[in-house]
Automatic annotation (TrEMBL):
Residues 89-295 form the Cytochrome c assembly protein domain. InterPro entries: CcmF_C, Cyt_c_assembly, Cyt_c_biogenesis, Cyt_c_biogenesis_CcmF. The lineage of its organism: Bacteria, Pseudomonadati, Pseudomonadota, Alphaproteobacteria, Rhodobacterales. Pfam families: CcmF_C, Cytochrom_C_asm. It is found in: Cell inner membrane. Residues 315-634 form the Cytochrome c-type biogenesis protein CcmF C-terminal domain. This is Heme lyase CcmF/NrfE family subunit. GO terms for biological process: cytochrome complex assembly. Required for the biogenesis of c-type cytochromes. Possible subunit of a heme lyase. It comes from Paracoccus liaowanqingii. Belongs to the CcmF/CycK/Ccl1/NrfE/CcsA family. One of its GO terms (molecular function) is heme binding. One of its GO terms (cellular component) is plasma membrane. It is a multi-pass membrane protein.
Amino acid sequence: MIAELGHFALILAFMVGIYQMTIPMVGAHKGWHGWMDSARPAAMAQLLLMVLSFGALTIAFVTSDFSLRLVYENSHTAKPMIYKISGVWGNHEGSMLLWVLILALFGAAAALFGGNLPPSLRARVLGVQASVSVAFYAFIIFTSNPFWRMGNPPFDGRDLNPLLQDPGLAFHPPFLYLGYVGLSMAFSFAVAALIEGRVDAAWARWVRPWTLAAWVFLTIGIALGSWWAYYELGWGGFWFWDPVENASFMPWLLAAALLHSAVVVEKREALKSWTILLAIMAFGFSLIGTFIVRSGVITSVHSFANDPERGVFILAILAVFVGGALTLYAFRATEMTAKGVFSPVSREGALVLNNVLLAVAAFVVFIGTIWPLVAEMVWGRVLSVGPPFFNQAFTPFMIVLAIALPLGSILPWKRATLARTLRPLRGALILTGAIMVLVFAVSTGNSGLAVIGAGLGSWLVFGALAELWLRTGNSGAGRLLRLPRADWGKATAHAGLGITFIAVALVQAWQSEDVRVAQVDQPFRVGAYDLVLRDVQRVDGSNYLSQMATIEASRDGRPVATLTPEKRVYPVQGMPTTEASIDYGFWRDLYVVLGDEQVGGGWAVRTYIKPFVSWIWAGSILMALGGLISLTDRRYRVAAGASRPVRRDMTVPAE
């Protein structure tokens, strides 16, 4: 009965969404305030209904209701409770239900916190947001219904994919979806602005907090996914340029570009057309990511579904919304005249360069991701585009971006000179040079990558610190503490990016790997560490069987860690998994993977020493923290200019 209530709530949410996408839009066109105001309770009703629907599916998983096909295919009575709950979104149908729940959440948030928006713009934003929801409601109800009952319920389920039975699944997809779906708000604001005929500084202030929140969630989701791949898949890597990894990375790049572009609209009322285009494309790439994950057209270890019919439906959603928005954009683009004039060497010019680099980098990733599909469709050739292509094609844009960011952050608006701008950065340049010399001195082999990466990352970190000090006007620490939170947030995010640069370069340049057959009680050496395989024991888990090794690691005769890598088998699905054992450290990770038992005795053991790898996720945390700090700035929470009259052209009168 609870499942039927969930299904009914989903259908009711679909009907409310249809109302919300039509009546308020008509009201905004006619100027009928009652019709416009009805969007707010409709958005709240949608959220309530989706909470009921998602809650009903969660109850079905928690109680192991195997009369639901989805629960039968993705759960088991012996599965730990955390994986029963996370199993709700560890599949195609449940993850789509989470998707529309988050769509409803953002719509309700816009209704709740959008009181300072002009009524017509608010109604149109909520109407566009509801239209996206309606499309996905239809997708779920007609192609991916999670509430289908089975005529003869089995006694037990088929269990969840063992690779997904990890705490990372409980957090990684929800944060990713909060980012993916959060970009729908930027899309809704862009389309509403095109319909309304209003793109100005006030609009930029309204759209920036929503974009920043989505970017923060996406940053956290990508970082969690990278960390999960690092410790769970047993490959010792943090990024593989997998198509689904790229699917989340492309909108992240475009959202970062949108954030910087909106600054120019807010401060100088320039780049209006470009900012609108970025808002459309950022969400468009979120939909492209959904298509990649769920259509089966591209093979990936992360793919949720392999159903071309569902892929066609998502492709239709993509074509309707992105195609429709771009068509509207084409009609309005000529009307979005820029008010501000600036020289190439200025903060506006630096932000334009930032935008171009991020957008082109996203396009490069897109080409590399989609090219195998194009080659197979057009020429019938099976191609694989791997890390070498992405590393060579993507890295140059990031190098230029890292060089330009500290400069662009302190350039004045309208016009500037590079010589004058570099003066406050002399200290940062000296410290960066010192770091590069130090890295070169301790490098052994592949030193170029380490030196360049450490230099770029240090430049970003010291440049962010120099910018903060410059904003104090040399007034000392007291003034530093009184700086706006947005300044602190920007500096923190840029420093986080620098730390990630340093970590990626150093781990790639200095990591070491050892593969061998290890005999029990016979020491072997990897780098500066001595390791000994003591034994391999059978361990029975809650829903798996494991062979767990005990490996003792020491350095210079002093114990460092006891590592327990495993090889697991999940009997229900008959699928083996590898569980790495990692000794985490500030300067390095010691990473050990257990392989198969060998015919001549001993066990295959793979050992990695990963210097500075934890700094990758520390940098990601700082980037997300920087975004959160900025969100607490009052200027992000209170949009100015809400009372300004709506104009039917895309220009803003001179002050």
